[in-house]
Design a protein that fits this description.
This is Acyl-CoA dehydrogenase family protein. Belongs to the HpaH/HsaA monooxygenase family. The protein is an alpha+beta fold. It contains 12 helices and 8 strands. Helix content is about 45%, strand content about 15%. Helix 4 packs across helix 8, helix 8 runs antiparallel to helix 9 and helix 9 packs antiparallel against helix 10. The longest helix is centred in the last third of the chain and has 34 residues.
Length: about 400
């Protein structure tokens, strides 16, 4: 396939990005190219092949690969900056990048033989739902897996796919470790081994291709299964927070894009009734000032908690309850703040914002869809409060799960 001139890779694949700074620079350079393709990405409801390759060339899918495996090992904050930069170009591309980079986090729970196989492609993409909606029956050497999983963001272009399963033995569910009511295990298989079911007809994030995927009676070797209680390495990437750390980069990038867009519009607009330039309009000035204030506060909360989270995980210091929930609350706030900002910017622009030709229409729908994800729902806030008070959280962690 010949790649359009407007979407050539930022650099050749032979020039591997070796540093966080270079990966971030490539992500920023890719953003305007992604913006050019946003309408197509939404219309086709998945990332076109050349867009996927552009993302690979930025190095985003290797940002969680540790130094000991030859990767750049970006901190949580550095990862979020990369996702934020890509989402500034296109929300669906940023979302798929955020999901797809989990390859090297999953690898931390797998044995060396499987990791060696995975390391053959440092830019491999992984997709899949963690929740145990599939079934894995024990057989000699592994499992026979059957299931259908929803919300497979990026599954249309994934090299690896995971699926959460309840383990069964002799036809009955196994109890989990430590007296848990079920044995929740994740399986890992090649993307082409799953059938994709085109269910993704949504209000927003259409281009993420977050459709269902399924498999029937697939044999998965024992070594390609894992759970989050038994990491094979140590460090920040084996903490539950590791899957969630860079998620806020998507809403933050979209909100920043919307603000910049409206500020550019304001430079040439006048109030219809009075002829007053928008730059002198109290209404416009207040809306923009308020939005900038709220986005800045939300962004600093995200990055401040991510720096603290990384430092404590690196040092092995036991976190306080407040530290445990701080990044989760900052993450929820980033989603809600971004949606609120873009909604008010749409109100400011008025009827022009309701047309599909306006990026505000797409950004608002994308953020509305993002805010329905479990990571941004009320139960995360409730679970954080319960954790602080010693009560019972409704979410699996005071954090939620990505998928």
């Amino acid at each position: 396939m010949t790649m359009p001139e407007t979407l050539r890779p930022v650099t050749g694949r032979e020039q591997v990005p070796a540093s966080p700074e270079e990966i971030l620079a490539r992500a920023k350079a890719a953003a305007p190219l992604l913006r050019e393709r946003s309408e197509e990405i939404e219309r086709t409801r998945h990332l076109p092949k050349d867009v996927v390759e552009l993302l690979r060339d930025t190095g985003v899918f290797r940002i969680g690969m540790p130094n000991e495996w030859g990767g750049p090992e970006l901190t949580f904050a550095q990862q979020t900056e990369v996702i934020e930069a890509l989402s500034y170009g296109d929300a669906a591309a940023g979302w798929c990048a955020m999901i797809g980079m989990d390859t090297w986090i999953y690898a931390g729970y797998l044995n060396e033989f499987v990791v060696k196989e995975m390391r053959a492609n440092p830019d491999a993409i992984t997709a899949g739902l963690i929740f145990p909606v599939g079934r894995a029956d024990r057989v000699p050497g592994g499992y026979r897996v059957t299931g259908r999983w929803p919300f497979g963001s990026g599954v249309t272009h994934a090299d690896w796919v995971v699926g959460g399963c309840v383990v069964h033995q002799d036809g009955e569910p196994e109890p989990g470790p430590g007296g848990a009511p079920m044995n929740w295990r994740l399986i890992l298989a090649r993307g082409e081994e799953f059938e994709k079911v085109d269910t993704w007809h949504t209000t927003g994030l259409a281009g993420s291709g977050s459709m269902d995927y399924q498999v029937t009676d697939l044999f998965v070797p024992e070594e390609r299964s894992f759970d989050f209680t038994q990491p094979h390495r140590s460090g920040p990437f084996t903490a539950p927070d590791a899957f969630l750390s860079n998620v806020p980069g998507v809403p933050l990038g979209v909100a920043r894009a919307a603000l910049d867009h409206v500020r550019e519009l304001a430079a040439g607009r006048v109030e219809r009734a009075t002829g007053m330039p928008w730059s002198d309009s109290y209404r416009v000035q207040t809306t923009i000032g308020q939005a900038e204030m709220e986005l800045s506060a939300a962004r600093y909360a995200v990055y401040g908690t991510l720096h603290d989270l990384w430092d404590r995980l690196r040092s092995g210091v036991e976190p306080t309850p407040d530290q445990q929930v701080s990044s989760a609350l900052a993450r929820v706030n980033a989603f809600r703040t971004a949606r609120s900002i873009v909604s008010r910017l749409s109100d400011l622009v008025g009827t022009a914002s309701i047309y599909r030709t306006s990026p505000l229409d797409r950004w608002l729908r994308d953020l509305h869809t993002m805010c329905q994800h479990i990571l941004a729902q009320e139960q995360i806030v409730q679970s954080a409060g319960a954790h602080l008070l010693g009560g019972t959280p409704q979410a699996p962690f005071p954090l939620g799960l990505k998928g």
